[in-house]
């Protein structure tokens, strides 16, 4: 009869061996739902259109220092019109500099118009407070300092025919909207400006690692989004080898 000690040791070993398989499953989830991923590391704008003088510097999009400069990044409506019944998740890294550049308007970190109203996240006039907008109303909170921070925004179904929006700061939930009816996108999406194209308020700011997914993620899924585009899809040979080894050893242990 197998002892409890050996039984527990076997469980621990099997769990450790299966970690590569679970990692692969998570990677496949993100890869399957990925619409675009721009890290700007090759010095090009990828899927983005840089407008008003926004530029790529050291593998990041840079918004120059100044007042109401008019710089923004545009993502075509086709990349964003995935809300449907499954929702959408948009994430990027953000370093604020002196944004917003003036006290009379916020700086939009992402913004798109939908059939139910605007949806996105912004830095408030005090230059530190995070807030989000959605068809379910304004929501969210949290403070942003001068370091890089990851901003995520998701719209997802609630299971009762409604949807809700969440904003995240560094992977942590920062506010949930009121429920709202399903919506569809009606405009291009912008980083650095509102969908109406008049609020340009980034100053000495950077954006990096922009990702759009065609599903509204749970809190845990948002927290697990890889930090860079290269982390979305693992090397197939490495992951398959790890899973194959786990399966083989698990089978060997069972035969004993």
Question: What keyword list fits this structure?
Answer:
alpha+beta; Jelly Rolls; 2 domains; 8-stranded antiparallel β-sheet; 3-stranded antiparallel β-sheet
Protein described:
- The chain is α+β, with helices and mostly antiparallel strands.
- It has two domains: 1-32 and 232-256; 40-227, Jelly Rolls (Sandwich).
- It has four helices and 14 strands.
- The protein has helices at 4-33, 77-80, 219-223, 236-255; strands at residues 34-38, 49-51, 55-57, 60-63, 72-75, 88-95, 107-114, 117-123, 130-133, 149-157, 163-169, 172-176, 189-191, 205-213.
- Strands 1, 3, 4, 6, 10, 11, 12 and 14 form an eight-stranded antiparallel beta sheet that branches. The protein has a three-stranded antiparallel beta sheet with strand order 2-5-13.
- Helix 1 packs antiparallel against helix 4.
- The chain is globular.
- 39% of the residues are buried.
- The model is unreliable at 4-9, 11-19, 237-242 and 245-250 (pLDDT under 50).
Detail the topology: elements first, then pairings.
Layout: H1 4-33, E1 34-38, E2 49-51, E3 55-57, E4 60-63, E5 72-75, H2 77-80, E6 88-95, E7 107-114, E8 117-123, E9 130-133, E10 149-157, E11 163-169, E12 172-176, E13 189-191, E14 205-213, H3 219-223, H4 236-255
What's this entry about, in short?
By secondary structure, this protein is of the alpha+beta class. It is 23% helix and 31% strand. The chain is built from 4 helices and 14 strands.
